[in-house]
Known about the structure:
Layout: H1 8-28, H2 31-54, H3 58-78, H4 87-106, H5 110-133
Helix pairs in contact: 2-3, 2-5, 3-4, 4-5
Amino acid sequence: MPAAQPSASQLAGAQAKRAQLNREAVLSATPVRLLTMLYDRLMLDLTRAEDAQVGENWPVASENLLHAQAIVDELTTSLNVTAWDGADGLLAIYTYVSNALIGANIHRDVARTRESIVLLEPLRQAWHEAAGALPAPQTAPSAEGYRGVA
């Protein structure tokens, strides 16, 4: 007997639940975790865009490139260039990639998308390694004990 297909309302409910869980994950994430989440999503968007460009699915490619641009813009605006010596170099990479993504979208240029992936993937890996090297965040005790456990 074949399995019953989920109804449209069941699918909508599952999508709403997933969206809520994603919102909660973002709201409860540490700044370092948010950064790695942004990089992970950026690379997912770029991979999807590249696949769509290769398949000449231009609407999907454009949607993913625009989302990737928004993430690069967020990374750019949140970068404190006075905090460390390498920040100017990272800002230059973000600016270059932002322009490359605009060109990739306008000119349907998969090579620019691929170049952005090649430039950003080592940064994603480095941020993940740096995040993994940090000590686990400590939680302040409440009146009920740590995380509500007495």
